Amino acid sequence: MIIRHLRLWIPIGFLLILIAGSFILPSTHPHLFEEGPSYLKDEETGRLVASPPYTPSEMEPMGSDKLGRNVFFVLIAGAKYTLLSAIAIALLRMSGGFLFGLVYTFLPNWIRQIFKGLGDTFNFIPLAIIAFVLLTPLQRAFEAGSLYSMKFLFIQVIVISIIVIPSLGMYIGEEMREFLKNDFITVSRQIGAGRFFIIKRHLRSQFSRHAIVMFSEQLAQTLYLLIQLGILHICLGGLRIAEFGIMEHRPEYFSFINDWAATMSINIYQIHLYPWLLLSPLAFFAISIFCVNEINSVLKEVFLEGKPLTKTKEKMVRQEPPSATVDHLFTLTSRERGKHNETI
């Protein structure tokens, strides 16, 4: 039980420290996030030994990007946008999915079958493709200067949330329909309980525990989706394209908020030359997803399987000697009378 307690609070603490550091460090130590030196020189010979991007051995712990910035601190600065956006998307998915599920549960059967058929069809289309199709026109508008970075980020959060709500709502609705088949729900309806009463007293209490577990699942899925969208150059806050070529086309991508998917997307074509530029943000994604999965597994054990989070104190029961029964007392009394008669 102590291990289960640590499995929950250590990942939560790590993610909270990462988000807090993303807010605090840029304001208290701004020099860590500035551009590094344009070259490294050997002090003894005076020769140039390296230029950006620097390797992890030249600039610890994860090297630098093309501007000479330390990749580790760039990822720390972008953690607040990546993690908080993923949390916002997961919350919107759960809120919209629960409301959609309530409506889906009480729909007529023929309408529900239509929604179910459409949902089964779209389940075969990857979410990354749907998000890419919807967000590409907005990305072009952002590149043209029609959208600001934070406004584009807000729209992205809304779009990425909406594309999952129908399928998630139908899944929740089917679970609600199975729950409504219980005998105590039937009895409640027979004695006059309406839909609002059933939702308030039965569905809300039952699915509040499931919602906590599903929120952690949606958070992990959102992080997975951000990685996929980053490969397709659809990143939170958008990417600016600058042309560095003179005789040939050499576009370079830049991000305003430096979220993890953008850092990965910017350097994806240089994985063979500078692999740390791609592996570093993937490492941050992997550690965060691992923490979320650990939290999800503990929440399943506690809320769905009924296992305690902490060790419960066992009450010490004092064992008293067995009391004499009526038959036993009668036997002892008879023996005492017999002994008394023999004495007389």
Strand order of the largest sheet: 1-2
Mean pLDDT: 81
Residues in β-strands, percent: under 5%
In terms of structural class, how would the helical and strand content be classed? mainly alpha
Q: How far is the first residue's CA from the last residue's CA?
A: 70 Å
H/E topology pattern: HEEHHHHHHHEEHHH
Helix amount: 55-70%
Gyration radius over CA: 32 Å
The beta-strand count equals 4
Query: Could you list the spans in which at least 5 consecutive residues all have pLDDT below 50?
Result: 314-319, 323-344
Would you mind describing this structure in some detail?
- The chain has 344 residues and is mainly alpha-helical.
- Helix content is 64%, strand content 4%.
- It contains eleven helices and four strands.
- A two-stranded antiparallel ribbon has the order 1-2. It has a two-stranded antiparallel ribbon with strand order 3-4.
- α2 packs across α6 and α2 packs antiparallel against α8.
- The radius of gyration is 32 Å and the shape is elongated.
- The C terminus is likely disordered.
Using brief descriptors, characterize the structure shown.
344 residues, two-stranded antiparallel sheet, 4 strands, elongated, disordered C terminus
Topology:
Layout: H1 2-28, E1 40-41, E2 48-50, H2 71-105, H3 109-122, H4 127-143, H5 149-162, H6 165-179, H7 183-190, H8 195-231, E3 239-243, E4 251-255, H9 260-266, H10 276-304, H11 326-343
Antiparallel strand pairs: 1-2, 3-4
Helix pairs in contact: 1-2, 1-10, 2-5, 2-6, 2-8, 4-5, 4-8, 8-9, 8-10, 9-10
